[in-house]
Write a structure and sequence with these properties.
alpha/beta; about 120 residues; 4-stranded parallel beta sheet; 4 strands; about 35% helix
């Protein structure tokens, strides 16, 4: 089973990151592909555009956002495919671009993947 962690894409990559996956639907502003040091960009497990826009990173909407995002993922073949692919990785770092390290979709995704 993989150890999942989350990290902002703007933070410096490290060897402790293991397999680095960008889990945003949009490419982060101001980040070059070299700086990102990605192993994968997986848009399919990111929240839908509609959900992302509704959430707008409003803290008071986070609980509802997390529930809706989890619901989106439950019906997604992308999540099962991702879990299978990551099973052989010791450490997987889920990279996100949001400003808040506690209120973002990568935190929700990590909790789902860690179950």
């Amino acid at each position: 089973m993989s150890n999942y962690q989350v990290k902002r894409i703007y933070d410096t990559a490290s060897d402790d990151d293991g397999y680095r996956v960008l889990v945003d639907r949009l490419w982060p502003r101001g980040v070059s592909k070299e700086h990102a040091r990605l192993d994968e960009w997986n848009k399919d497990i990111a929240p839908s555009t509609e959900l992302r826009k509704w959430f707008g990173h409003e803290p008071e909407r986070f609980e509802e956002f997390a529930a809706r995002y989890q619901h989106e993922l439950q019906g997604s073949k992308a999540l099962e495919s991702f879990k299978s692919k990551m099973a052989s990785e010791k450490t997987v770092t889920l990279l996100y671009a949001a400003h808040d390290p506690k209120i973002n979709h990568a935190v929700v995704l990590k909790n789902i993947l860690s179950k």
